[in-house]
Amino acid sequence: MPELSSQEKEFLEILIAKIKGHISEEEFGVSDLAEEMNMSRSNLLRKVKKMTDLSVSQFINQIRLQEAMELLRSSSYNVSEVSHRVGFNSPSYFIKCFREHYGYPPGEVGKHPELSEEGPELHSKDSRKRPWILALSGVVLILILALTWFGRDLFKDRIEKEKSIVVLPFKNDSSDSTNVYLINGLMEATLNNLQKIKDLRVLSRTSAEKYRESTKSIPEMAEELNVNYLVEGSGQKMGDNIVLNIQLIDGAKDQHLWSKQYRREVSDIFALQQEISKDIAKEIQAVITPEERFRIEKEPTDNLKAYDSFMKGLELLNQGRDENLLESVEYFKDAIAEDERFALAYACAGMAYYYYDFFKAEKEHLELLGAYADKAMLYDPGLGESMVAKAMYYLAKKEYTEALPFLEKALEFQPNSSQIIGLLADFYANNLPDTEKYLEYALMGMQLEAGPSDSVATSYFYLRVGNALIQTGFVEESSSYLDKSLEYFSGNAYSHYVKAFISYAKDKDLRHTRDLLQIEYEKDSSRFDILQDLGKVSYYLGEYETAYNYYIQFNEIREKLQLNVYVHENMIIGETYEKVGKAEEGRKFIESYRAYLENDQTAYKNLGLTMYYAHEGDFEKALSHFREFEKEDHIQYWVILFLPEDPLAEQIMKNPEFRGIWARVVDKFWKNNAEIRNRLKEKGIW
C-alpha cells in the first residue's frame, strides 16, 4: 500500500477538524460530514475507505474515541462527562466502545502508559494548543493507518468481513419427538434476538429451513445463502433440564470459530436464550446498542407454563395454512389464560387472524385482531410484534396512513425482520404506492430471504423485486429478475404477466403486449385481472368494441363475486362503454370512479381528477389538478408509458401548458430514476 500523498494527508486533517467541530453531537454522522466537506456521500465513502480501510462511520467513531482518550488524560472530567463531550449520550455504550478500541475501560486510563510528545506546547493553555492537538491527532491517525496497512493480512478478516449470519434449524437430540417444538422455539428465540441487532445481517427463518435435512456442506450453504457465518444447534430436554450445543462456523472456510454447551434448568430458559445470542454477537464483534440489549434481555413472561403453550402456538403459526393458524390461536389463548399480561402471545394471536383473513373479502376476525393488538400494545408497547399486530389491524381496515408508523417502529425494533420488511414492501406497492420505497424494501427483503425453503417461494421473491424495478423504470434489471423468477418456477403466472408489460417498455408494441396477455389468460380463464388488462390495452389501441367485450366479461365476474376491486379502472371502463353507445351504463362507471377519488390517499388522486375533468371538457379544472400532480415524486413507470396512449388525454394533450407540465413530469421521473440507483448503492442495498 503506497504512502499517503501530501494532498491526502491534508484531506484527512480537514476531515478530522470537521469531525471535532461537531464532536459532542451524537447525531453527527456520515451525511452531515459529507455536507461539511461539500462532497457526495458516495464519494466520501470511497475516499475514506481507500485511504484508511475504514468506513466513514468507523472513522468518525475512532476520532471520537481518540478525543475521549485525550480528555481523560488531560482533564478532570469523569467518564460520564467525557462520554457526552465526545458524542456518546449513553455512558455504558461509550465504555463498551472504548474498551473494544483500547483494550481496557476508560476508568483505567491512568493505569496505562501514556503515549505523549515532549514539549511545553502539549500542556500549554495558549492559542497554539488546538493546532498542536490537531497535528498530534494526525500523527496518531498515520500510526493507526500504518498498523492497518502492514497488518492487513492479520486483521483483514475482522475488518472486511460482513457480519452476515444464518441460524440453521436446531436438531432435536432426544428420541422424544414431542420436544421438537421446544428446540424449534429455542432456535426461533435465538434468531429473533439476533434480528434485533442492527450491526448484523440476519437471514430469515424461511431461508434456513430448506437446510433442515440437507446433506450439503457448510461452504455450499454459505455460498448459496451469501453469508459469512452459520450457527448450528442441537439439544434435548431431560426432565427439568435443557442441554443445548451451539456452534459458530466460518462459512467459507468451514472452520469452527466457537462452540459451547449450555446446561440450564427449564426455569432458566429466558436467560439461556439471551446468553446464546449475546455470545454469538460477541464472537463476531457485532455492536449491541444499549437499546438493543434491553430488548434482548426483556423476558416475555414469568410464567413457564404460559411460555410452553406459546411455543406450541408459534410452531403452528410458522407453518402457516388456515387450519394451523386457527389452532395456533388456541395455544396462544392458553398462554394468555396463564398470564393475562403476555403481550407476545396477544400479538401472535392477532397475526394468526390477520393471515387467516388475508385473502378473504370479508375480514371475519377483524374485531378479534384489533382486540389482541390493543392488548399487546397495552402490556408491551416496546415490542416489535405488538407494533406489527397493530399495523396489521389498520391494514385489514384499509386505514393505511394509520398502519405506517407502527410498521416503521416495528422495523426500528427488529431491523432484520424479513416479515416487517415484506409488509413494508407490499405497503408501498399496493396501499400507498411509492416506487423508491417499494424497491428499497423489496431489495432489503431479498438480502434476508436468500434461498428460501422452496423454489416456488424463491420465484415469488424475485417477482417482487422485478415488479419493484419495472415500476421504478429499470427495464433491463426488472426483466433479468423476472427471468430468474421463472427459472425457479416456470409456472409463476404473475411473472409472465409482468413480463407482458415489460415487452411494451422495450418494443412499444401494444398488440404484442395484448397477445402475451391473451396467452396467459388462456392458461387460466379465472384471471379476471388479465381480462381487465386485455380490455385496457384494447382501449389504448382505440379498438373499443374489443375492449367492451373484455370489460363485459370482467364486470360480470366482478358483480357475481361481489368484488369491490379495480374501481380505479372505472374511468376507462366507463369511457369504453360510452364509445360503443352505452352512455347510461358508462356514466355509472365514471361517477363511481369520481366517488372513489374522494377517498383516494395515493399520489395518483390528482392525475385521476385530471382525466375526469378532461373527459368532462373542463380543461381548466383538469389543468389545476395536473399542476398538483406535477408535485408528486416516485410515480410508477406505467404512468410514463401509458398516459400518452390514453384516448382520454388526446384533447388536453393539445394544450401547451399540459404538454409543458408533462415534459417536466417525465424529466423528473428519469432524474429520480438515476438518483434512486445512487441512493440505494450508497446504502449497500443495490
Automatic annotation (TrEMBL):
It comes from Algoriphagus iocasae. This is TolB-like protein/AraC-like DNA-binding protein. The chain crosses the membrane at residues 132-151. InterPro entries: Homeodomain-like_sf (IPR009057), HTH_AraC (IPR018060), HTH_AraC-typ_CS (IPR018062), TPR-like_helical_dom_sf (IPR011990), TPR_rpt (IPR019734). GO terms for molecular function: DNA-binding transcription factor activity; sequence-specific DNA binding. TPR repeats lie at residues 384-417. It holds the Pfam family HTH_18. Residues 13-112 form the HTH araC/xylS-type domain. Keywords: DNA-binding, Membrane, TPR repeat, Transcription, Transcription regulation, Transmembrane, Transmembrane helix.
